[in-house]
Amino acid sequence: MNGRVGIDNVRDLFNDEQFLTKFFFYFSAEERGTLAQVCKKWKSFLYQSKFWVDVTPIIAFRNWEKNPVVRRKFYESLQYRGFDSICLQGATDDDVVDFVSNFPPSKKNLRSVSVRCSNITDVGLETLFKKMCIYRLELSGCNEITETGLWTSLNAKIVSLSISDCINVADDTVGAISQLLPSLYELNLQAYHVTDAALAFFSAKQSYTLGVLRLKSCWEITNHGIVNIVHSLPNLTVLSVSGCSKISDDGVELIAENLRKLRILDLSWCPRITDASLEYVACDLGQLEELVLDRCNHVTDIGIGYISTMMSLQRLYLRWCQIRDFGLQHIYSMRGLLVLSLAGCIHITTNGLYGLTRLYQLQELELTNTPSASKGVGHFLRENLPRCIVLD
Q1: Which fold has domain 314-392?
Q2: What is the band of 110 on the pLDDT scale with cuts at 50, 70, 90?
Q3: Where in the chain is the domain with CATH 3.80.10.10?
Q4: SS3 sequence of the chain
Q5: What mean pLDDT comes out for the span 265-289?
Q6: From residue 22, how far is each of 5, 14, 28, 51, 52 by CA, in Å?
Q7: Which of 68, 144, 148, 237 would suit a FRET pair with 170, their CA atoms being 20 to 30 Å apart?
């Protein structure tokens, strides 16, 4: 079969390593975990690290077997598969100690750790950093961790940090980040109590290293915070202020005038943003590739007219915006657009959607919750945009 000698039947085929390599890549990571239980040969073969690249196993401690033998076998299976990331969910300090004690590769292989919805304290966080070399850290829903714990635990090797839904996070957290993480490239922060003052803490070195800043639902951030961002972090390529509801057109003007290297800008859920902001963006951000305007209810067809002149723009998200067919007519001219979302745009008509067929280069079009996107319209768009995935 296929020029290979010795494969005369199905049994031989399913024991042939060359065939199995191609065969197993047709399955998801979860399905490969099930297939590894078929026989010892498949288990041994599937436990090669090449089958688990970019896969993050999740350990749900609250529902997990307490038997130390069972846990040890699971840790061994992770070791064999060579994971470089792990997610600890529902963990306590004791679970963290158990993990780092029984999973030796944590000291060498693991580079990314997520801790979600867990009751670990500052002690548990410090244990993680003492036993592991962490480059990417996510903390989500960890309400027992304090700013003191972050000051004592964070190490200078971290290049990516994400913190969300941790109630003790405030300005002092940003102070710890700015002083302890000189190599930080990406910061994702969702914190209700962070104020404008914190955004002035970033160090001179971080002004060169930090390229990605995502602030989500930081309700206390105002245009004064934007002033601090553009002065402290002039080399940003990705900026999100999603849900920072106090930011207005003046803040966007500051962003457009000072952050000329931006490739991605997310202004979603900013109710004070109007068409004026889009004029600033269109005039000054000539390298922008992605713009997110979801739920910006004061953006109209006039604003869409401004951004339709941006030849660099490849991805445009307008979910639940108040645009109409006139705005779509501006979008028809954006021949470089690859991804477009019009989900929830209730004022668009069927005729407006038909005109999207002029965007022959489009690869993805989202029309969910758009009343005029009937089955017939979806069928028409798929026929006339054969390279485009239409989500309706």
Answers
A1: 3.80.10
A2: confident
A3: 314-392
A4: CCCCCCCCCHHHHCCCHHHHHHHHCCCCHHHHHHHCCCCHHHHHHHCCHHHHCCCCCEEEHHHCCCCHHHHHHHHHHHHHHCCCEEEEECCCHHHHHHHHHHCHHHHCCCCEEEEECCCCCHHHHHHHHHHCCCCEEEEECCCCCCHHHHHHHCCCCCCEEEEECCCCCEHHHHHHHHHHCCCCCEEEEECCECCHHHHHCCCCCHHHHCCEEEECCCCCCCHHHHHHHHHHCCCCCEEECCCCCCCCHHHHHHHHHHCCCCCEEECCCCCCCEHHHHHHHHHHCCCCCEEECCCCCECCHHHHHHHCCCCCCCEEECCCCCCCHHHHHHHCCCCCCCEEECCCCCCCCHHHHHHHHHCCCCCEEECCCCCCCCHHHHHHHHHHCCCCEEEC
A5: 98
A6: 18, 11, 13, 11, 14
A7: 237
- Over residues 330-349, the pLDDT tens digits come to 999 999 999 999 999 999 99
**Residue the block writes with tokens 């002004």:** 207
pLDDT in tens, 153-162: 999 999 999 9
Segment 121-138 shows an average pLDDT of 92
pTM score of the predicted model: 0.91
Type of residue at 58 = I
Indicate the pLDDT class of residue 5, thresholds 50, 70 and 90: low
